[in-house]
Amino acid sequence: MLFEKIKSDILAHNSYVIGAGGEMAVIDPRRDCQIYTNLAEHGDMKITKIFETHKNEDYVIGSRDLARPTRAEIFHGARENFEFGTGVREGETFSVGPLELEVLETPGHTMESISLLLRDRSVSDDPLMVFTGDALFAGDVGRTDLAGEDKRREASEMLYASLHEKLLPLPDSVIVCPAHGAGSVCGGNISDREYTTIGFEKATNKLLSLSKEEFVERKVNERLYEPPYFAMMRKLNREGPPLIYNLPHLRAYTAREIRSLLDRKAQVVDIRSPTSFAGGHIPGTLSIWRNGLPLYMGYYLNYEDPIILVDDFNLDLDHAVRHFVRLGYDNIAGYLAGGFAAWFKQGEEIERNGTWSPSDLAEHLDDPSIWVLDVRNVNHREEDGHIEGSHHIYVGELEDHLAKIPEERQIVVHCDAGFKGSLAASILEKHGFRHVTNLLGGTIGWKAANYPLVKEEEKPLSASPAL
After folding, report:
1. Separation between Cα atoms, residue 76 and residue 78, nearest integer Å
2. Sheet harboring 267-270: ordered strands across?
C-alpha cells in the first residue's frame, strides 16, 4: 500500500495519495498537481479516482486539473450543486485495488462535507485511516461560520453530530488525516502534530469533551476572520476552476514599463523584507513578504488587474507564483527585471517609511503627536497584551477603518514582529498618510527589551473576530 501526505506550505493544506494494486486515489488535490502524476508514474500506478472532501474556501481545488491528464473520476459530497464530478452519499464505497474508501457524510464546516474511511481489505476489515477534510483536525475542529451568521448555530449542531455520531465512534487506533495543519485559517487553533488518531483526539482535544450545548456555544461565539477572497474560492470551487495546465509564464518588465502600468491600475507587490521596503520602494506598492503572500494577498488584491512582483534578486519566483495560482490569481503577470535596483538605477522616484526600535517608541510613547496602531489579530492582542495607549485595527480590515486614523499625527504601526506592520504601513501610504513608522520587532521585540504589555479590557476599533 502506498500512502503519501502532500503539504502545501503557508496555507497548511494537506492532500493525500493512497494506492495499491496498480491504482491510485488522490484526496483534496491542490491546483498545481504535477506532484500527483509524478508519484503515480514513480509507483507504476494509474490515478483512477479523485475525492474532494468539501468545496474549500481557502484555496482553489485541483481535481479538474488533475482529471484532465489522468481521466480519473471526481467525487464530492452530494449536498452541494457542483458543476462537475459526481455526488456521493453516506455508505457508498469505492475500490482502489484492494483498498476500500467508505463515504461518511460529516456536514458542519460546510453542508456537503464528507469524510472517507479507509480499509485495506487485503489485510483486515478493520478501518485504518479516516480522511476528515475540515471536520476534525489535530487538536481542533472546523470553523462553522462560513455559511453565514444566520446558519452558524445550525452548522455548529451539525458538526457536533458529525463528530460524535460518525468520527469519534471509530476505533481509537484509526489514523486521522485532516485537510489542514497548524496555521490554516480553516480552524481556530490547529495543533502542529503531523499525525494523530481518533483515540488521541478523544483524550486530548478539549472541544471533543464538551457537551453539545457547550460545543455549540463555543463555536457560535468563536472569533475568526473571513478573508474577502473566500467568496471567490467558493465560487470557483463550486463551478469548477479554470484549467491552468501549467504555472503561468511571468514577463520581465522594465522600470519604465512598470511606471506606466501603475498609471493603469496594475497591482505591484513588493515581496522583500520589511527593512528593505522601509529603506526604499516604488510609490504605491503593497508590501507583502514572501511567506505572507498566501495569508494576505487575498485581503488586498483583485482578480482583474495585472499583478507585478518586485524583489531584490528575483530568485525562485516560481515558488511565489504557486501561492498566487493556489488562490486563483491567474492575473499574476510579471516582475521587475533586475529587481528593485533597476528602479533606482533608472532614477525613478522612491518612497520610504520610517522604522523604530522598541526603545524609540518607549522614548516617544507619551508624545501627543504619536498615534500607536496595533494591527495584530484581536485574539493575540487580548491573550498576549498590548502596548499601553495603542489602538487596534486588524491589518486585514485596515482599509475599512481608515477614517478612524488621524492623518495629522505620526502613525507608529506594529504587529508581532514587523512583517504585518510593513503591510499596514504600505496600505496607509497608499491612501495618503505621510507620517508612518513601522515598529521593527513588534510586541516580540517590545517584550524582549523588557517593556510591559498590558491586558486590561479595551474595545478594539475593529470589532471583527480574528484568524
Report:
1. 6
2. 251-253, 332-336, 307-310, 267-270, 286-287
CATH of region 354-448: 3.40.250.10
Instruction: Report which of 100, 106, 142 is spatially closest to residue 120, judged by C-alpha positions.
Output: 100
Which pTM value belongs to this model? 0.92
Q: Is 204 left (phi over 0), alpha (psi -120 to 50) or beta?
A: alpha
Q: How far apart are CA 102 and CA 91, in angstroms?
A: 6
13 grid coordinates: 493544506
How many helices (H) does the chain have, and how many strands (E)? Answer: 15, 24
Query: Residue 213 and residue 52: Cα distance in Å, rounded?
Result: 30
The answer to whether 192 and 435 are in contact (CB under 8 A) is no
pLDDT tens per residue across span 214-248: 999 999 999 899 999 999 999 999 999 999 988 89
251-345: CATH number: 3.40.250.10
DSSP-assigned beta bridge partners for residue 309: 269, 335
The predicted model gives 256-283 an average pLDDT of 95
Pairwise CA distance, residues 100 & 116, whole Å: 9
318 touches 311 (CB < 8 A): no
What are the extents of the domains in the chain?
Answer: 2-239, 251-345, 354-448
Q: pLDDT tens, 113-162?
A: 999 999 999 999 999 999 999 999 999 999 999 989 999 999 999 999 99
Beta sheet of 391-392, edge-to-edge order: 354-356, 436-439, 410-414, 370-374, 391-392
Confidence of residue 456 (pLDDT cuts 50, 70, 90): low
**Tell me, which fold does domain 2-239 have in CATH?**
Metallo-beta-lactamase; Chain A (3.60.15)
The alpha carbon of residue 301 and the mean position of all alpha carbons in its chain are separated, in whole angstroms, by 14
- Per-residue pLDDT of 68-103, as tens digits, reads 999 999 999 999 999 999 999 999 999 999 999 999
